[in-house]
From TrEMBL:
Keyword Hydrolase assigned: yes
One function term, GO molecular function aspect: hydrolase activity, acting on ester bonds
Pfam families named in the record: Lipase_GDSL
Entry superkingdom: Eukaryota
Protein name: Triacylglycerol lipase
InterPro entries for this protein: GDSL, GDSL_Est/Lipase, SGNH_hydro_sf
Keywords attached to this entry: Hydrolase
Signal peptide range in chain numbering: none
SUPFAM superfamilies: SGNH hydrolase
Amino acid sequence: MDTIFAFGDSYSATGYDPKNGIDNIPGLGGTTSGGYNWLQFLASTDPTQPIDLYNFAYAGAVINNTAVFGSDVIVDAPDFVQQVASFQQFFAIPGGSAVQSGQTKWKTSRALFAIWFGINDVGLETLLLEDPVEKIPQIFGTMSVLVHDLHSGGARHFLFLTVPPTQRAPAIADLPAANVSQYESTLGLFNEALTAFTATVPLAYPDSEVTVIDTQPIFNDILDSPATSGFADSRTFCPSYATISTNPNIFLPQCGWPLAEYVWYDGTHPSWRVHEILAGKVAQS
């Protein structure tokens, strides 16, 4: 693969916006990891074979704003619907403006479409006391339409990631037990629906390939045995690090150990080292 198109939320966002220039690719500073995130690591796995990363992911994004918030609520974060619309505007084959102008010449056989949603969908359904049994089918109805739209625009290689065990993130783990239990239950239902949905994609589009990365065992291995992966702390985060985005190797004495030895960058987001490990697992798949 020499091109990645990515869609998702803050676990994937890098600050890219094609309106600011097709090739204006952000470096450090646009993630929620304190350094690079998994997509940036994945795109640079082999320095001799650079990969173009066009990343539409946005912090706070869900799959379908209307399904989660209702039609009367204005949401700033572009959902998967809007992210796909942006892809269609600029990159879809043959009608995307960047394709027509020659600014990009990506090939369907060489492009990976990475899709990682659900963290905010699960969290907001729990926070808003919505019934996941009702909402999740609506959300995946939208997902089906959007995968069709991506396929129509040239997508042939799909990568989906499940929701990690974010109930173990400090900010969520500290909630009342009943809230954590509800969150974990909704998360499980979402991942079950995602797994079922991804199985239908190659049946609907026989010319396509689908890879699913289950992030649950990857994250749980790190959280259960942090020292094995080089971490000193898997339960808390240091607030002094949570405002730093361009110095991944920083060590502040008041934090006890370097940012790189914390599993959590802040209350809900993993540090860049977790992203690096995740990218390695994805690259091996």
